[in-house]
Amino acid sequence: MYNAKAYSAVSETLPLSPTTIPRREPTEHDVQIEVLFCGICHSDLHSARNEWSEFSPTVYPLVPGHEIVGRVTNVGSAVTKFEIGDLAAVGCMVDSDRTCKECKAGFEQFCPNNTLTYNSPDTHLGGVTYGGYSESLVVDENFVLRVPSNLDPAAAAPLLCAGITTYSPLRHWGAGKGKKVGVVGIGGLGHVGVKLAHALGAHVVAFTTSPDKEDDAFRLGADEVVVSRNANEMQKHAGSFDFILDTVSATHDINSYLALLARDGTVTLVGAPPKPLEVAAFALIGGRHSLAGSSIGGIAETQEMLDFCGEHNITADVEVIPIQKVNEAYERLLKSDVKYRFSIDMASLRAE
Ligand code: NAP
Ligand code: ZN
Q: Which of 40, 42, 196, 210 for mutating ligand 1's site (highest number of atoms within 8 Å of CB)?
């Protein structure tokens, strides 16, 4: 074991603060990674404040961070995929049982025994896993991803969660040429979702509650932008969507989006508001509509997404911050005041 500097939340009300955490020495299949950049996902904030206490209670201290890009500094004796000096990335999972039907089908995110990057039982050291708001981490090579060399590491980091969480449902529900696709919420997930849906060839409509994001939404690749608080603008799209991806982090009205679906259309939730949402039966019955959900994506699909982003030159729009500004960043995230993802420059932690 060795010690690494990190930032942790020690309770649901106190700000994140500097700490030291244990990391394992790399075992034979492990890759040790010096963290260069780590994105700030809204899930980090939900977890730090224990907002998902009913589904996944937070164990303190919590070291968040699951959008990690770093440099390989050491490899175990049996590692074949990475060498010292390689750029490497880690997303929301660091392990799974690899034997269940979900793992065999490439759906490690649905493995009942998977290990999430933070706040999950740590099978090596006991306690819980600690995420990417740290100097370094040690991960089995099968859960380490490759970042295309043309992508900027700071802006590529958010792809590890925001990228795969939007790519996977867009692919699953067939977003592409000839399809009308909506993306609700132009935040970290949503702005990457707009870029990906555009690159996949769909006709993309961005829905936002923030009128000042309109110009950006067009620049990101939207063909149309709807300010969702304007009922007239919403009404113009009634009954027309094949697929709508909802990335909203807070309680909101999903019935108004179900009403925009064409026959057999689907609204898929990736946003995870802590409280249940109300669904009107008539919003589903009318056009044989579906309401669905989706969780990140499997490891192979995550690599596929990164390669797709490499080919299409897609990264997140990031505001790079030092770790010392993480609490301020959380407050701004709550106000939808980030364009469009914070990426922490971990050199600021090493310098502390
Ligand atoms: P984010 O950057 O905060 O973006 C959320 C966006 O939702 C905001 O920018 C805002 O967009 C909109 N919004 C916020 N409050 C709203 C409200 N009260 N009513 C309507 N719209 C509102 O968050 P994120 O990092 O993209 O994460 C979004 C959600 O996805 C979080 O709940 C997160 O935990 C979840 N998540 C799920 C998965 C998964 O696997 N399913 C993975 C990662 C994250 P506008 O300003 O454009 O309206
Ligand atoms: Zn995330």
A: 42
In sequence order, what are the residues at sequence separation of 6 or more whose Cβ sits closer than 8 angstroms to the Cβ of residue 30?
24, 75, 76, 79, 138, 139, 140, 141
- Cβ neighbors of 39 (< 8 A, separation 6 or more) are 65, 67, 157, 158, 160, 161, 162, 188, 316, 318, 341, 342, 343, 344
Give residues with Cβ within 8 angstroms of 262, minimum separation 6: 180, 239, 240, 241, 242, 287
Strands 87-90 and 68-75: antiparallel
Q: Could you tell me if residue 112 is left (phi over 0), alpha (psi between -120 and 50 degrees) or otherwise beta?
A: alpha
In the numeric block, which tokens belong to residue 110?
């649905």
pLDDT digits (tens, 9 = 90+) for 236-287: 999 999 999 999 999 999 999 999 999 999 999 999 999 999 999 999 999 9
- The type of residue at 293 is G
C-alpha 282 to ligand 2 mean position (Å): 32
Q: Cis bond leading into 2, ω under 30°?
A: no
User: Whole-model pTM?
Assistant: 0.98
pLDDT, tens digit (0-9, with 9 covering 90-100), for 138-188: 999 999 999 999 999 999 999 999 999 999 999 999 999 999 999 999 999
Question: For residue 66, which of 205, 146, 147, 164 has the smallest C-alpha distance?
Answer: 164
185 in ligand 1 pocket by Cβ < 6 Å? Answer: yes
CA 114 → CA 64, 88, 143, 223, distances in Å?
A: 17, 20, 11, 38
Handedness of CA 144, 150, 156, 161 (dihedral sign): negative
